[in-house]
Every structure is written in C-alpha cells, then in structure tokens.
Amino acid sequence: MIETITIFDVSVYSGYSYIGHCKEFLWNVKSRQSGDFIFKGLVCEYDFEEMMLRKDLFLRTQENKEYVLEDFVITDVSQIGRLQGSAKSIKILDSSFPAIKAFIEDEKIVLSKETQLEAFKAVSDVVHQVKNDAVINGEQTRAVMRTLVDEVLQAPDAIMNLMDIKSFDDYTFTHNVNVSAISLLIGSSMGLAKDELEELATGCMLHDVGKIKIAIDLLNKEGSLSDDEFVELRSHPRQGYDILVKSRGLSEESRLVALQHHEKFQGNGYPANLRGNEITLYSRICSVADVYDALTTDRPYRLAMSPYDAIKILTSGIDRHFDPNVLTAFIRKFSLYPAGSFVRLNDASIALVLRNNPESVIRPVVKLLKDSKGEKYPDRIEINLAESSGLYIVGQASLTDAKIL
Length: 405
Hints:
Helices cover 35% and strands 22% of the residues. The protein has 13 helices and 14 strands.
C-alpha cells in the first residue's frame, strides 16, 4: 500500500525566488529514499521551466511549516495545473537541516546545527515577508545574529566546513548564512566589538534582499545580459536598501550593506561609484565574503571553484575591487589553504589544514592523515609548517585522496 502525504495551500520557493502557489501537494512514498509528487492547482509566477534550474524546492504552508523537496525531477506536464514528478525525499526543514561537522572526529566547529537552522529560517522569513509586502522584522534577524556572533567568538580558531551548509541546493538561503559567517570571522580578526559584529552579521544576512524584486529568469540567466537586463539586475542594491529602510529594528549601518556591497574600493562599482572609505567598513567586509562564497558555490551557469582558486581570484583584485586591509584580514584568517581543506605535502603525504599562521599564509598548521605510501596515520600528528623547514605544501588534495570518512 502506497502511503500518501497531502499538504494544502503551499507556497513554492527557491532561494529568493518565489515560484508560485498550489492548492494541494501530494507526496506518494515509494520507499524510504524516494517518492512521487503532484502539484495540484499550481499557479506559477514565471514559467514552470524555471523550477527545473534547481535541485531542491522549499514548500511553505499557511502555518509557516516548511518542507524541503530534495533532488526533484519533473516527469509530466501534460495537464495544466497538475505538475507531476519524482524526488529523492521530502523532509520537514527542522529535521533535515544539515549540521556543520568537522572533517575529523573531535575537531572544533564554528556554527551549531541549531544556529544554522535559526539563521536559515530567518532568511526564509525575510523572503516571505517581502514577498507579501510586509515589513521585515529586523529585530528577529538581529536576535539570530547575536547567537551566531557568540558562537564565532567562542571558537575564533575553529574549522568552518562551509561545504556542509551547501548541501541544500538553495544558493540564496545558504549564501546569506555563509556570507554572514565569513564576514564575522573577518570582522573579529579586525578587532570589531561585539555590538559591531552583530550589526555586520545582520547587514550581511540581508545584503541581497533586493533580489526578491528581480525576475527569477534573470537571476539564473546563462550568457550575456541585454542592456535593460543589466540595469534591472544592478537595481537590487537600491531596492534592497529601500526595503530595509521601511523595516524596524535595523541600524543604518546594517542597511547600508545592502546598498553598498557591490561598490569597488577603487571605484567603478554600483550603484553610486563610491571609492575607498566612502564605502562603509561593513560593506567592504561583505564584498569580500560575498564574492568568495559565490565563487565556491555551484550555480546554474558555473561550477564551483576550489577555495584555493577563489582566493587567488580575490587577491588578483586586491588593489581594485577590495579594501586591501579587509582582504589581508581575510587571507590571514582563511589562508590560501583554508582551514578544513586537504593538501598534499612535498613528501607525497596528505594532510588536513587545521589553522592558519598569520605571518605565513602558505604554511598553516596541519594534521597528517596519510603517509607517502598512502597509509593512514594511527595517531594524531600535528605539524606547524612555518616551523618545519623540510615540509611544505605542493598542492591541493581531494576528499577522495584523503579517504578518511
């Protein structure tokens, strides 16, 4: 007997993009790992083909209960208003949100699962509020950011495995959480006070809110944009700021992050072509975190880069796009070989980067995983490469190379 789950009055989202609404969603369980679904009475704001650009969909009921439809495939569009397909699973968001975990047992982490979930849902609430022309509850976002700040400050040297919070294929939601976390690590390394870090994290969490007003097909478009499309896309900082101005519980410093995060340190950014210290410090920090996370995340039109390649791109624009002081703080915090990444040493051994050396960005502290013959080390061996003249990094290694999980 096939078990059927029915959800009524569902809003369908994908990141900041509102897909549409359906009167009834049916999920037919085929096995523990998969099932078939039907959207009944589905009315899309855009062509339903836009759904196919995504891997996961988010379903939100009138009672604000949220589900994640994972690895979905559309199989039948023959009947208007009755879209059919299959998916790996459907899960209630609270129970399925992935925890950031360390690569190795007993390693420290930065963000707990509970804090990630609260941050993720805070972004979801913002999307829902703006889509329904409601005023954003900025105090709710600030409250979540206080918890995030506390966790980052408690583990300033911890490993942050950003790839774990990319396990949902929802770029916008996870992107905002990532940018906030990365910005906090940069801000804390620059000596910002706790209240400043809360403002920074809040601004970064909301930095792309203006994209809610941009058409989904434009956000996901492959190839070059027309002049009109280019102008529309570049309007999102101003639209985001206008949304936040109407919202309660937000400081002006937090709001300005939405307006200025695409400005460039040497000018030629948008929307106001600001330069240098005309751009707020929070916005300059967000700019670095925003580009780094975007480069290291899969997009519909581009595969993710490795952290190493992304940092090389960031440093290539140090005198033009980014504040050199902010980028220096970022590199010292993350290094060319970010904490949590695998590297190959000159003796052919494989190691895990644990933490960085501020004075030597190419010589971090590592934990040896496999020796030159490919054998796993039975004991924990840490080496500070800055103090080891005989060992150095010759390149990146993959999770497959390490084979430790």
